[in-house]
Write a structure and sequence with these properties.
Elements: H1 9-39, H2 42-45, H3 61-68, H4 72-103, H5 109-118
Length: about 120
């Protein structure tokens, strides 16, 4: 049995590998930009004549400022706590409402259940 033929290597590169490389690059570039910007010192950050794609003197001063001189850890904890509690409340209410709607038998019960589910 012969192996399936997928076309020439040039066609495969143009139709698959080049678009894949562009998509991966476009997807990962914002993360690269965030990392470079976070480790760049202020003197390089505000200098428009510097190359914006890499830094010459990386520093962790921005992280020190964020975690030691602001209340960011507490704000992050509060945000996480509120997200978990509100998700738990919504889940409990949704489970109770779903059970009640499944048990009720009236004319518009299936349509009402579908509308609530979609919403």
């Amino acid at each position: 049995m012969a192996a399936p033929r997928y076309g020439s290597p040039l066609k495969r590169a143009v139709t698959f590998y080049i678009p894949l490389t562009v998509m991966v690059g476009a997807t990962l570039f914002p993360f690269y930009w965030m990392v470079i910007t976070s480790i760049r010192p202020d003197s390089e950050l505000y200098n428009v004549k510097m190359n914006p794609f890499f830094t010459l003197h990386p520093t962790l001063n921005h992280f020190y400022y964020l975690f030691e001189l602001t209340m960011f850890p507490r704000w992050a904890w509060n945000t996480l706590f509120i997200a978990v509690v509100s998700t738990a409340i919504s889940l409990v209410c949704g489970l109770l409402a779903g059970y009640a709607l499944a048990r009720l038998q009236f004319r518009w019960a299936p349509a009402l259940g579908t509308v609530i589910f979609i919403t």
